[in-house]
Known about the structure:
Blueprint (H helix, E strand, L loop, with lengths): L5 E3 L6 E3 L4 E3 L8 E3 H6 L8 E3 L2 E3 L11 E2 L6 E2 L2 E2 L9 H5 L1 E8 L6 H19 L2 E5 L3 H15 L22 E9 L6 E11 L8 H7 L1 H4 L3 E6 L5 H6 L2 H6 L11 H15 L12 E5 L2 H4 L15 H4 L4 H17 L3 H10 L3 E5 L25 H9 L8
Parallel strand pairs: 10-13, 10-14, 14-15, 15-16
Antiparallel strand pairs: 1-2, 3-6, 3-9, 4-5, 7-8, 11-12, 12-13
The site of one zinc ion has 8 residues, from loops.
Amino acid sequence: MPLKSKFICPFCFEEHKISDVQFRCTNRRCKDVPDLELTRYENGDESIPKMGKPTFKAPSGGLSIPKSARCPECNSITYAIVCPSCHNKLPESTLLGRDMIISVVGSRDTGKSHFVGVIINELIERISVKFGGAMEGFDDTMQRYKAGAYQKLYMDMQKLDLTQSSVQNVNNGAYRPLIFTLKLKHKGLFKDKIDSYTLVFFDTAGEDLNDEDTMSTVNKYICKSAGIIFLLDPMQFPTVRNQLDENTVSRASSVDWKQATRSDDIMARVSKLIRNDRRMKSEQKIDIPVAAVFSKFDAIASLIPEGSTVLENSPHCDEGRFDMADWHNVDSEIRSLLTEWGAESFISQVDLNYTNYSYFAVSALGLGNNPKENRSIERPRPHRIEDPLLWILKENGVIKASK
Ligand SMILES: Nc1nc2c(ncn2[C@@H]2O[C@H](COP(=O)(O)OP(=O)(O)OP(=O)(O)O)[C@@H](O)[C@H]2O)c(=O)[nH]1
Ligand SMILES: [Mg+2]
Ligand SMILES: [Zn+2]
Ligand SMILES: [Zn+2]
């Protein structure tokens, strides 16, 4: 991997030159000082700032940065590198590997938190392994994940609550992204080499995507993402809802569909945000890969024609590469379902705004695992949850595709 000159902070999503990183003293005996950057990042009160060990710029060493630096206060050596704008500790892969921010967006109740909560466990236990790699959490990411979505879904076996707006809830999971390092082995000419990627998941509250002002401050990450996973709840289409019994629909939702924002509106807002950030004209298409994904596939599986590829298990992991024939079938099956369900306006929104997009369908909980009225579920056994992510990784050249 070539040395990078810039990086995106996985906490605050600001872009910086590598040479601008700072160090933080790690000597326990060094005196704490007010940390305004971290206070600001955590939306705290600047008049009663958070305290922390001193941060400082490393003595300049040209383009690359030294591995360690000496604290100007106590003279001890530190290896801890922090972001100059938010003072969060940066993972090594941020400095050496590729930044892969995956945005998961969609209106309220479309299944974003369940998607993220389940795909992380799958990535760690199955997907990364099948692709000859490993994924591990950075800093307190695993603790936060295990105490949050994992505890609820895999230990308590309960469905998750809707996510609260991060405007008021600084400490909720939607505010601090989940940060992982994905390591993949690539066959080199003479020996295998290992590439590392910083994989960042940000589980937005659908509520925060309703308003442009909130979006531009909270959702900077969308503009920097390597791919956007746009979730759609199929039961928000009247034609689908009318073919299912009421009980199935209500168990697969947490709010009444009438309260949900239209997916086309969210798509329009997200696209406008990216264009503003990149100073693009409104007729220019955005080149970030967009996976438009039907969630809660288990609830609508009965409506899918027998013999459809999307009913079969995902083949990519077993093949250890992205299966193009399977992808092509699923994409065209979902496109024709969307047309059948009267979602032409969504299709044209996607087409008008993006150069590279594809359609998928997933279930985070799995076939026959629609939550009970008392919110209980069986252990998640997802259906095709990896497809949209693997496609984004393929589009970014991270994994290979079958010919
Ligand atoms: N049957 C089924 N229901 C699901 C699945 N995923 C989510 N749901 C249902 O959809 C509801 C909303 O899911 P969430 O993941 O909380 O939705 P969200 O997009 O995070 O919503 P906000 O946080 O409000 O933006 C859940 O309470 C479940 O009832 C799934 O894979 N299958
Ligand atoms: Mg949520
Ligand atoms: Zn930062
Ligand atoms: Zn010190």
